[in-house]
Design brief:
The chain has 215 residues and is mainly alpha-helical. The chain has a single domain, classed as Tetracycline Repressor, domain 2. Helix content is 67%, strand content 0%. Helix 1 crosses helix 2. It starts with a helix and ends with a helix. The relative contact order is 0.09.
Length: 215
């Protein structure tokens, strides 16, 4: 296998299921690639650059094949689909959203996707500035949602604290009956449904703000 930034990033992503982000080290990545750790530094200078490369790999996979909305496709539906693609890509790896959060992605796929989004929003009568805000809101919601979604697998704990019985035992139901009911119900959440609902709520808010501004 040719050793390059992409190969290193993919090897690091493949290690996440066993080690999680906190357990990921350059040494472990080098071992997975059957090279010495110093060989990695020709391609990624440090773990920060490694995380950027990993995030780029996740994003490129998410937007592969993305095109502008077809005729008759609403801009909101297009944005929802784009966010769903990113969520799916991050969920392929343990801590995938943590990897993505706060990284810098300097890649043609990123700039092309942003341009498509801004053009789509411009066609929906958003200014470039407002379109940029909408794109950022959707991106941040998606990453934040998946961070929480992945945390609830309990992979970072010896025993998953989010299990229904543990949550139920941890709350005084007599004092906090509504909270207990809510928290226990969260263990049965359909994340696909919750994610889509959140997106629609955000979009409804954006529409309401636009309407108010136009008045």
């Amino acid at each position: 296998m040719k050793l390059d930034t992409q190969a290193i990033a993919q090897a690091a992503l493949d290690l996440l299921d066993d080690n999680g982000l906190d357990g990921l080290t350059m040494r472990k990545v080098a071992s997975a690639l059957d090279v010495q750790a110093p060989a990695l530094y020709w391609h990624v200078k440090n773990k920060r650059e490694l995380l950027d490369a990993m995030a780029r790999t996740v994003f490129v996979a998410a937007v592969d094949g993305v095109e502008a909305p077809r005729h008759g496709v609403d801009w909101q539906d297009w944005m929802v689909e784009l966010a769903g693609r990113l969520r799916t890509s991050m969920l392929r790896y343990r801590d995938g959203a943590k990897v993505f959060a706060g990284t810098y992605i300097n890649d043609e796929a990123m700039w092309r996707t942003v341009e498509l989004a801004l053009r789509t929003l411009e066609d929906a009568d958003f200014s470039v500035a407002d379109g940029g805000r909408v794109f950022a809101i959707m991106l941040h919601y998606t990453v934040g949602f998946v961070i929480e979604e992945q945390a609830r697998t309990g992979a970072d704990y010896d025993t998953n604290p989010y299990r229904r019985e543990r949550l139920a035992d941890g709350i005084d139901t007599a004092r906090y009956p509504r909270t207990a009911h809510l928290v226990v119900d969260l263990t049965e959440v359909d994340y696909d449904t919750e994610f889509a609902l959140g997106l629609r709520v955000i979009l409804a808010g954006i529409r309401a703000v636009r309407t108010e501004q136009e008045r």
